[in-house]
Amino acid sequence: MSLIANVAPPEEGELLVVVGPTASGKTDLALELGERFGGEVIGGDSVQIYTRFDLGSGKPSAAERARVPHHLVDVLDPLAPLDAASFVARADAAIADVRARGRVPIVCGGTFLWVKALLRGLAPMPPASPEARARHEALVVTSGRAALHEELRRVDPESAGRLAPNDTVRVSRALEVFELTGKPQSAWHAEHSFAEERHRARLLGVFRERDELDRRIAARTAGWLREGWLEEVRALVRDGYADARAMGSVGYRQVREHLDGSLPAGELGASIVRATRVFVRRQRTWLREEPVVWLEPR
């Protein structure tokens, strides 16, 4: 039975948005929606948007992209900077282009800050400060990522609790906001409340019991390692992408640590699975607040 047998076609101006925890089956759902409703997928993933970060991002394959056209997937050099505001501008343009051709836009991705910004706007915070970022980079070099995260925890514990210590880009940005304004980033977000409706959206996801999702995460991790994930990361490091933002994402970070010699081969798979499960808990926290229509596989 089709996963979307009972899903109604989108209304005029309604945006279909596929969300859900990592490994729940977002890509398959987006493909089915695209084929059913004459749609095209707009990626909402901060790793899949980059070229060469393929296996560990769960990037749709060439065959899947041939089935349903994709936008904002595999389009940027790994060293190209991209923040939520830039993503929103690109996604808005892609959505308009898809609709102008009489097709149905379907947003799909696990970077929920980006999805939230697309649907509800961004809090008006100060522009980036190269000086602040340089200081933060120097602190990471001399004292490690945990030291930068601890600095953020001291001034903005709510943001620190939301961000992983190894996510230095977002940790740096949150700390930068406080340093420039004297107000925590979490307070900016609370005042904004994301109440603006930029797109009228219907959120869809694939429901998985926790145990089933854990099994899917473990199987996917083992499969990607068999298929050449280590070789992919070796090539990225060799070609100058060791410091790419995507290299700090869940899974890629652990593979890089293994290649650097700090994570034994026998612990690599389990370490990736643990980190992924932590990431899924953060995703579930965000999703609890959203009106997601959960579709159950049969």
What keywords describe this structure?
Helix Hairpins; single chain; Histone, subunit A; Rossmann fold; 298 residues; globular; six-stranded parallel beta sheet; alpha/beta
Number of helical regions: 13
The count of domains is 3
Termini separation comes to 6 Å
Using the CA coordinates, give the radius of gyration: 19 Å
The shape is globular
Compressed to H and E, one letter per element, the order equals EHEHEHEHHHHHHEHHHHE
Q: What does the average pLDDT come to? A: 93
Structural class, please? alpha/beta
Report on this structure:
- This protein has 298 residues and is an alpha/beta fold.
- The protein folds into three domains: 14-123 and 195-208 and 287-295, P-loop containing nucleotide triphosphate hydrolases (Rossmann fold), CATH 3.40.50.300; 130-192, Orthogonal Bundle (Histone, subunit A), CATH 1.10.20.140; 210-284, Crystal structure of tRNA isopentenylpyrophosphate transferase (bh2366) domain (Helix Hairpins), CATH 1.10.287.890.
- It contains 13 helices and six strands.
- The protein has a six-stranded parallel β-sheet, with helices on both faces.
- Strand 2, helix 2 and strand 3 form a beta-alpha-beta unit.
- Helix 6 (145-155) runs parallel beside helix 8 and helix 10 (210-227) crosses helix 13.
- The longest helix is centred in the C-terminal third of the chain and has 23 residues, at 265-287.
- The protein starts with 13 loop residues before the first strand and ends with a strand.
